[in-house]
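pipeline stage [seq->struct] | target=Proteasome maturation protein | organism=Drosophila albomicans | residues=134
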Amino acid sequence: MNQQSLKVRPTDVPVLNASGKAVLPTQPNCVSQLAHIHRLRDSELNYKDHRYNIDMQMLRNHEGLGAPLRMGMDRFAARQVGRLPFLHSSNMMDDVLTGRCDEIAFEDFLNIPEHNEQMRQPHAVVEKSMGIYL
């Protein structure tokens, strides 16, 4: 096969840093060098924010700057409402403001780790969040 006909050259890792000792997560190792991350992963992680930004740009083009600013301030105020540290927030106010309350998405029926129920000692969690260690 002619090397000149290749438009995209394969990229190989020239040297694998294999060692028998444990390494820190910031240091390169064989697994991190060979790990494959799909291109759509980042796209799916940022889908909601990207969709919101597109909707706000369209609203600004149609209604002017006031409507997206008001909606952004409403969303900011909804995110400031908190619960005690040991209670998980459902973010229902943010879902209502963005319109996500009307749709059933992937994370609604397939349990993602951040929605897992965790039994923790309420007093210990509050003391840790306030910086009180006994």
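stage status: PASS
auto-comment: The helical segments are 30-34, 39-45, 47-63, 66-80, 92-98, 106-109, 122-130. The chain has two domains: 37-80, 84-133.
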